[in-house]
Amino acid sequence: MHTLAIDIGGTKLTTGVFREDVLIERASCATDREGGPIWMLSQIERLAAPWVSQFGIQACGVGFGGPVDFPSQRVICSTHVEGWNDFDLISALRDRLGVHSVIDRDTMVGALGEGQYGAGIGVRPLLYITISTGIGAGLLTDSGLYHGADSFACEIGHHTIQPDGPECLCGARGCLERLCAGLWLERDYGKHASELLKDESFTRSYVKPFAQGLKTCIMLFNPARIVIGGGISKAGEALFGPLREELARQLTPWSRARVDLVPARLADDAILWGALALVQSHASSGKLLRP
What we know:
This protein is an alpha/beta fold. Helices cover 38% and strands 22% of the residues. The chain has helices spanning 36-55, 89-97, 106-117, 176-180, 182-189, 193-196, 200-221, 237-250, 270-285, and strands at 2-8, 12-19, 22-30, 59-64, 68-69, 74-75, 100-105, 126-131, 135-141, 144-145, 225-229, 261-263. The model has no long low-confidence stretch (mean pLDDT 94).
């Protein structure tokens, strides 16, 4: 069986093909934030349509960079790109590619990927956090992904760290995403995050609000492990060392909650692998993908 996997992000679009559990094809392109859904669908068709024809693909998993109403399988919105409000991406992919699809928020899909194929194998509950253009998370438990009552669980990027901090795209002030995401680091400091995090003094300052956000997650969810992915996680120990130290300073002294903090093993492909797992979980549970 061949499965199409799609990762729709604020910075790039990535597509891939799996033959069973082997990634055999992969292609990506930069995201045009002004292009909206029509541009994105055209790029997906350009990259994936030849594979669909070549391999006879019938199933597709999608990680979308924004809130998704999982029960209805519709995009709620994108916090970075206009035009996605209440968008029926499943029908659009059916019309363009002729495939059955299942979709979830990219951070939820990333949690599945790392939980089944990456740094979280056999570890539950697993909290996956991505730090890239924005910040989000997914919580994988023994029962599966935790979506919450309205599919808004784990939107950690928009909880307030500094009430009097700078204004975020969401309209609030001092959000974790506003203080720590790559988009804002580049706008605030004029350098890419990869360059900024080479400066030890900058990193020591950067990890303070980031650790505040992680402390909240640990006290709320008590995960067995936190896996951090996204572009900023590629800084490696230059980031993770100071982050672990700062988190240890901030954690409530009496708390015995474990702190197991590791980088994503699947790097840029966590969401592709999660998309595969998403399709597999629907197939094994007997749920029908919408035609």
